[in-house]
Amino acid sequence: MLGDPMETKPIFVICCLTIFIFIMTSNYLLADVATLKRIAEAERDVTYVGLRLITLSTSSGSRTMEELVIHRTAEDSYRRVVSIIGGHKSLSPENDRERQRNDNNRNRNERRRGREFRWVPHRSQFSTKEIELIAQNYELELRHWGEKIAGHETDLLIIKPKHTGRSTKHIYFSRDKGVILRVEDLDAAGILRNMFVYNRISFESKAVKTKWDSVKKEIKPEPWHNWPSITLAGAEKILKKKPIQPTFLPTGFQLEGLYKLKIRGSEPIRLKYTDGLLDFSIYENADDIQSETTNRPPNRGDRNRERPVIKIGEISVRKHQRVPDNGFSWSSEGIHFFISGPIPPSELQKVVESIILKTDQK
Questions:
Q1: Residue 342, exposed/middle/buried by CB under 10 A (0-12, 13-18, 19+)?
Q2: Which ranges in 172-266 belong to alpha helices (H)?
Q3: Angle made by CA atoms 318, 319, 321, in degrees to the nearest 5
Q4: Residues contacting 169, CB < 8 A, separation 6+
Q5: Which of 26, 47, 264, 275 lies at a 20 to 30 A Cα distance from 286?
């Protein structure tokens, strides 16, 4: 016996609506991912020169600088701080008192200031792999903004996390050129942590060439900006054993690559993990921790003693915090480990626990 056509009709309508909504949602998502790809291509291919204000949150407070950016090609793209606008603005009284107690901080700030005024590579915000991971781990929303930044009409792409404890990024980009003109990074609580905005920018090839010709002799990239990538076999050769990879990773994170570093005569290996937008790194160094510590300035050892220590099994692990990063360091089986990134400490600690457990099992 056939069913009543009037009873089956609502079900048919609901199914059609569900399919329609799914198709429309998928189309919007694909369109927003396509927008991110367009931005990445523009950041690589469009030539420009401009001045931007950049504000960063650090463990000592917030800092605002003015940067000159020159982008000719993906290979010839550099930036340099041209002025510091004001000093540190403390994020908390505790940080302020700690800075006043430690005279050596002033020396470090002067050294850092000297580094900041050098030309450094200006890299694209997003690689192809990062875009793939962002599409998996974040929701993208395109808004037609219309307001002008540095004289250019803009649209807004919002990248919102699917997982708790992650940051949100607001990207304002030129509607015509696709180049990023303003970025706002908000932490998991919605607090603005870092941002930059162009107050002047030119896409005219003549202006770019003129500025490039006037500064190209000053540009001397330093080797620490281009750490070579290596294979697992290469890392094993340096460490004299296989690098320890965690068995636990925060949701959505993947190994992006391994890199060989050279720091103060030692050669730590860096394992970089990313979810497309956020990164954290694990550094493994075959040097004995005692010899490394004795080569450090006394004040750094003093700061280490002030840092909280937790026990994971039989291993003593130091906790670190340099806004916005959290970190842990420890030594085991002749390897010194340091892990750091803008990830909640509870998640990073699980990564540490998985490494220590794996080390104990070897």
A1: buried
A2: 205-215, 232-239
A3: 145
A4: 158, 159, 183, 184, 185, 186, 277
A5: 275
The Cα 339–Cα 280 span in angstroms is 7
Assigned token pair, 271: 């394992």
Nearest to 100 by CA among 88, 111, 112: 88
Phi–psi pair at 230, nearest 5 degrees: -135, 170
For residue range 38-84, what is the model confidence (pLDDT) as tens digits?
999 999 999 999 999 999 887 677 889 999 999 999 889 999 999 99
Q: Which residue has the tokens 């927003």?
A: 32
How would you classify the pairing of strands 77-89 and 61-71?
antiparallel
- Burial zone of 132 (CB within 10 Å; 0-12 exposed, 13-18 middle, 19+ buried): middle
pTM value is 0.80
Nearest to 177 by CA among 43, 54, 71, 36: 43
Amino acid residing at 107:
N
Q: Are 341 and 280 in contact (CB under 8 A)?
A: yes
Longest CA span, the chain: 91
Which tens digits make up the pLDDT trace of 134-169?
A: 999 999 999 998 899 999 999 999 999 999 889 999
Tokens of 127: 């690689």
> What DSSP assignment string belongs to 114-153?
HHHTS-EE---S--HHHHHHHHHHEEEEEE----EETTEE
Q: Is 342 helix (H, G, I), strand (E, B) or coil?
A: coil
With tokens 């199914």, the residue in question is: 15
Across 208-324, the runs of DSSP E, i.e. the strands, are 229-230, 254-260, 269-274, 279-285, 309-312, 315-322
**Interacting residues of 304 by C-beta distance below 8 A, sequence separation 6+:** 293, 318
